[in-house]
Amino acid sequence: MSNEHHNIRSINKQGCQLSQIKQAAQEWHDSGNPYVRVTRRLTTTLSLEEVIALFADELMAWVPHDQLTYRHRIGRQDFIYSTGLGGQHRCEYKLGIEGEPLGTLTLTRRSRFHDEELTAIEQMLAVAVCPIRNACLYTRVQQAALTDALTSVPNKRALDEALAKACCISERHSEHYSLILCDLDHFKHINDSFGHVIGDHILKAVAREIEQAVRHSDSLFRFGGEEFAVLLPYAEESDARVVAERIRQRIADLQVCCGERQVTVTCSLGIATWHTGDQPERWLARADEALYRAKRHGRNQTQA
Question: Does residue 291 share a domain with residue 170?
Fold first, then answer.
C-alpha cells in the first residue's frame, strides 16, 4: 500500500515538473527581451550566412544602421556577408572566443553611434558569439568533406556539386561553361622511380601551378589520383584552350628537387564545353574523351 502511494506521489511530482518546464519554455518563447529573442533565433540554424542575417535583423530593431558587414576567413575561403550601404560613421568588432578568431563585424551609418548604442551592440554580440562559433565550426566541417587532404583543393565530391550547379545555370540563363580535365603523364613511373613522398610533393606543386594559371573566376578540383579538373564559367572553347595551354606550360616548366636530380612532369588536357541538355555525367564524359585523345596523340598537349 505504501509503495502504491509513493508511486502516485512520484507521478504527481513528475507531472508538476513537466508543467513547470512547459511554462518556462512558453515564457522563453514569448519573451520580449531582445537578448532572449536573439539567442532563440540564432540557435535555429548552423548556416553561418543565416546566423549573421538573423543577427543583423535583430540588431536593426535596437540599433539602426545603414550597413552591416561580416568577414571571416574559414580554411581557404573568405566568407563575406554584407547588407545595406555604408555611411561615414563606423564601429568595428573583432570577434573571438578563448583566442579563436571568429571574424570581424563592422557597422556604418550616416550619424554617430551613441555610447548606449555601442553598449547594446556589444551585449548582443556577446549573446551571438557562441552561435557564430558553432556556425563557423559547421562550415569548416563542410569544407573538410569537400576538400582533398593532400593538395587542399576541392575534391571529386565538390566537383560533382559544382557541375550540377553549372548545368542548372547554363540551362536557365544560356551561359557558356567549359570544363578542363588535366592528367599528369606517366605519373606511375615517377612514383615507382622516386617514391610516393616525391609523388605527393609533385601533386601539391602541380595544384599550386594550376591555381596560378587559371582565372579568378575559375575553380580547381582534384578529380582523381593524378587528375585535376578546372571549371570555367563564362568560357567558350577558345577561352578554355588559352587557360589549358597556360596550365600545360606551367606544369612542363615545373622542377622538383629530388636529391641530385630535378624531377619534371608533363600533362595532357581535355576540354569540353557545356551543350544544351547536358547532364554532369555526359559533360564530364566528353571532357574525359578529349583527355584520352590527348594521351593517344602523344601526351603533353590539349585536345577538345
Answer: yes
pLDDT higher than 50, residue 6 = no
pTM above the 0.85 mark? no
Give me the active site residues, please. Answer: 226
Position 19 confidence tier, pLDDT thresholds 50, 70, 90? low
Residue 139 shares a structural domain with residue 164:
no
- The DSSP bridge partners found for residue 91 are 107
Structural domain total, the chain = 2
